[in-house]
Design a protein that fits this description.
With 309 residues, this protein is an alpha/beta fold. The protein contains 9 helices and 8 strands. The protein has an 8-stranded mixed beta sheet with strand order 1-2-4-3-5-6-7-8, sandwiched between helices. The relative contact order is 0.14.
């Protein structure tokens, strides 16, 4: 983690502007991104929605598609709802295509503060609504889709599961939440114990929330704060990974306990010694690699075809 922090610290924004912040974040992401793995094919697409277009990136094994279509990981990237794009999470998403023998679909949802809540959520919901109908004509098996995301992406993934439960048609097979944001105010005691954690502290969370959801009246909306949902029954199986030294740690732990009490099959992975945002370090750090392998195992289990059981 010291190496991860030191490498990340090399990428300072030139000033306090959003343009500079995004440029620094993109440079940081490039630093940790390896070349596209052998055996993985990349395709860029767009989804037309209400007169605009949502950019998509599909990673899939460069082999013949299964007859029923590819099982799919719908990956929603992090970045505090204000940072990130299709390039930012290649280090995580691209290897998943091989590890899970699946298509991995990454969404370039609208960012704040240009587009405030619920814009990012609405984009993810619009994508799922189209994906479950025809697989976006990308050869995706709509009955075998897992939604996953880290940080703000974990927030969007959890919110999506809440929004679509009980709908007619194919249901999500699982949710993989990686150090997710699940409440407008991070849960204690981690919120105070790790308020000044390296790379992401409580003040960073407050800043991102103010950009994405400037209206406090929205802060108890389950589309923004899944922990505020009255019921978690009927949700898909969950894998929740949290980092020990993260002000958001107890968001994930609390959500996992509530899911379990609601009868939802839930695995909670507490990554000892790790920090928020560490997953992009998985190819260098043994503990982050262990967390990555654990979520891959969970995804493979969720995506497995149980039609013959």
């Amino acid at each position: 983690m010291r190496s991860f922090v030191n490498q990340s610290a090399l990428f300072h924004a030139a000033d306090d502007s959003l343009v500079a912040m995004r440029a620094a974040y993109s440079a940081l992401c490039r630093h940790f991104t390896a070349p596209l793995p052998d055996g993985v094919q990349l395709e860029d697409h767009v989804l037309p929605v209400d007169g605009r277009h949502i950019p998509l990136r599909l990673y899939r094994p460069a082999t013949t598609s299964p007859s029923a279509g590819w099982p799919c990981v719908l990956y929603l990237h992090g970045g505090g709802w204000i940072l990130g794009d299709l390039d930012s999470y290649a280090v995580i998403a691209a290897p998943l295509a091989l590890a899970c023998a699946a298509a991995v679909l990454v969404v370039d949802y609208r960012l704040a503060p240009e587009h405030v809540f619920p814009a990012a959520f609405d984009d993810c919901l619009a994508l799922w609504d189209r994906l479950r109908v025809d697989g976006l004509q990308l050869g995706i098996n709509t009955t075998r889709v897992v939604v996953a995301g880290d940080s703000a992406g974990g927030n969007l993934a959890a919110a999506l599961c809440l929004a679509v439960r009980g709908r007619a048609g194919p249901a999500l097979c699982g949710q993989v939440l990686i150090y997710p944001v699940l409440a407008a105010v991070p849960t204690e005691p981690a919120a105070s114990e790790h308020a000044d954690a390296p790379l992401f502290g409580r003040h960073d969370m407050a800043y991102c929330l103010a950009q994405y959801a400037p209206d406090p009246a929205t802060h108890a909306d389950p589309r923004l704060a899944p922990l505020a949902a009255a019921s978690l029954q009927g949700l898909p199986p969950a894998f929740i990974a949290v980092a020990e030294y993260d002000p958001l740690r107890d968001d994930g732990l609390c959500y996992a306990r509530r899911l379990q009490r609601s009868g939802v099959a839930t695995e909670c992975y507490l990554a000892h010694g790790l920090l928020h945002g560490c997953l992009r370090f998985w190819q260098q750090g043994c503990q982050t690699a262990r967390m990555y392998r654990a979520l891959v195992v969970a995804m493979r289990r969720m995506l497995a075809d149980h039609s013959s059981d």
